[in-house]
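Narrative of activities, Objective 1.

The group set out to show that a structural description can be obtained from nothing but a protein's sequence at a throughput compatible with the screening campaign. Below is one input-output pair from the validation batch, recorded exactly as produced.
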Amino acid sequence: MTNMVKAWKIGEAKEFCLDVAGGQVYSLATHEDTLFAGANDGSIYSWKLSLESDQVFNSVTTLEGHTGPVECLTVGAGKLFSGSTDGTVRMWDPEKFVCVETLTGHEDTVTSLDGSVRAWGMSHAGNLETVYTHKEGQGIVSIFGMLNDEGKPILFCSCKDNIVRLYELPSFTEKGKIFAKREVRAMQSGPDGSFFTGDGTEQPLVNVFMK
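Output recorded for this entry:
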């Protein structure tokens, strides 16, 4: 949405509107009791969940640093990671609300339109460095990772040709494809091997992924 994030309290049918000054909201992520939203102005807005307040969410601060829209957000290893059209990935401390490190290497928008998937690892000096790069023929819209029943990592890679490709890591061996009518920008796993994709047709698609 533009200049707004909507939240619903399930079970009570309550709706809350969270103001965003930075225009279109492209991405959302949560860390414990904090909600983060990436916006068109390059800022990441944050709110704390308050069980004692009728407002439910209280605005905390705005994370500044990106010079282009924040296209994607994710949380992992206790850190918040953001990707932007400025070609950088930033790692944030989600509790102190400060940028810990800026990762460069992509040549275009990070979700990423430069057609590459980059794996980052911690160096001996304690910095994140590129350890592997996979080039995709089509521009990449979004990625999503999960483990199969054997504990092996599987990467879902949504490309601009409306195909989601399944890769086994770290070899990037292709294990299958999911075909869509429009670009798949949202992906999420569910129970019993189900997998959800969201695209521009405005109709969510449920796939059964045999792990």
